DUF6924 domain-containing protein (Kitasatospora indigofera), 152 residues
Amino acid sequence: MLPAVVGRRDAALVIRTDFGDAAAWRAVRAELSKPWGDGDLEPYVHVVDDPAWDGADADAVVAAVSVDEELNVVFLADSTTMRDHDRTLLAVAVLTRDECGSDEEFEASGGRVRTVAAGIEDIHANLSIANLDFADVRDAARLDPAGVFRSF
């Protein structure tokens, strides 16, 4: 069983789920620490780097973090992240079908998409203040030839 994690409302929650490549993880951490926006905004991420999460899939992570009712999205540094040249993370909406009143609401608010580290702050900030929903994130990713969220 995965440990429960409560995110910090002001910080994007990043959970490492692949522990096979220390050098790749260092590269991911370097990307996560770069300023974003116009280059003057410091990133604010809460990183969970605990081997208890090794191999956890997105559904298991959502189940473990769903105790935090304020959390809208979690970012996974998974095996794809470690292999991918761009070190894309998996952004996962923290929402289950049972929490939605309809399939349409779940379709708009749920889902998964890959994002570059620089996109984490855009996603987290906009979802946190309900400026956009996860469908907007997915739509922005569809504009990229690789299907990766880069920015709004």
User: Anything to note?
Assistant: The chain is about 35% helix and 15% strand. The longest strand covers residues 12-16. The chain has a mean pLDDT of 88. Residues 33 and 43 are 6 Å apart (CA to CA).
